[in-house]
Specification:
Shape of chain A: globular
Radius of gyration of chain A: 14 Å
Helix content of chain A: 25-40%
Largest sheet of chain A: 4 strands, antiparallel
Strand order of the largest sheet of chain A: 2-3-1-4
Number of strands of chain A: 4
Structural class of chain A: alpha+beta
Strand content of chain A: 35-45%
Oligomer: homodimer
C-alpha cells in the first residue's frame, strides 16, 4: 500500500478521523488493516486515506458525503472488522466525522 | 509530551488535519515541533492534539472555533515555524480545516 498525502478534490467533502491505541501483539490486525484500506478504496464516494502510527495511530479517510460514510460503515466485512477491533485490537479509539471546509498546502 | 487520544468536548468543534512528508535530516525540526505543541496548548480555544508519523506524518489539532484557529495561525512564533517548514522541513504538506459534526468510541 502506498501511503501518501491524498489528492482530495476542492472542499467541501468529509473526513473520518480515526485515532486509536492498540493492544499488545498483532492478532491478525495488520492483515485486516490492509484489507480494510483495499476495501474502502472500492467504495463509492471514497476520496483517499492517510495513516500513521506511533504511540497513537491516526487514520484519516476522506469521503464525498455523509451517505458514502454511512454505506461504508454498513459494509458487512467492515462491520465484522470493527467488531474485532473493539474486542481485540484496540485498547481505546475515537472516531470523529468532520466536514472539510477548506484546505491548502503543496503536494508533489 | 504525552501523546494520547484527545478528550475533546461534545461536537461541534474544529479539527485542523495536517499531513506532511518530511525532508531528510532533522535540521531543528523535532525541537520546533515540540515547541509548537507546547505553544498551541497555551492558545485560547485549543482542545487537544494527536500526532503520529511513518512515511507520512499526521497531526490533528482540535479547536473550539474558526476564530481560535485564525489566531493560532497568526501567532508570530507559529508563523515563523511554518515558514521554516515550507522552506526546510517538508517535502509536501496539506492542511485541511474541518468541522467535527459527530464522534464516538471508547477512550480510557
Amino acid at each position: 500500500m502506498r501511503n501518501m498525502i491524498s489528492q482530495t478534490p476542492t472542499p467541501p467533502y468529509y473526513a473520518v478521523i480515526f485515532t486509536s491505541i492498540r493492544t499488545e501483539g498483532d492478532n491478525g490486525y495488520a492483515e485486516m488493516a490492509d484489507r480494510m484500506v483495499e476495501l474502502a478504496r472500492q467504495q463509492e464516494g471514497f476520496l483517499g486515506v492517510e495513516s500513521a502510527r506511533n504511540e497513537v495511530g491516526i487514520t484519516v479517510s476522506y469521503w464525498r458525503d455523509l451517505e458514502s460514510i454511512r454505506r461504508w460503515k454498513e459494509n458487512s466485512e467492515h462491520s465484522f472488522a470493527r467488531e474485532k477491533g473493539r474486542k481485540e485490537w484496540y485498547q481505546s479509539f475515537k472516531v470523529r466525522i468532520a466536514k472539510v471546509e477548506s484546505d491548502y498546502g503543496f503536494v508533489i
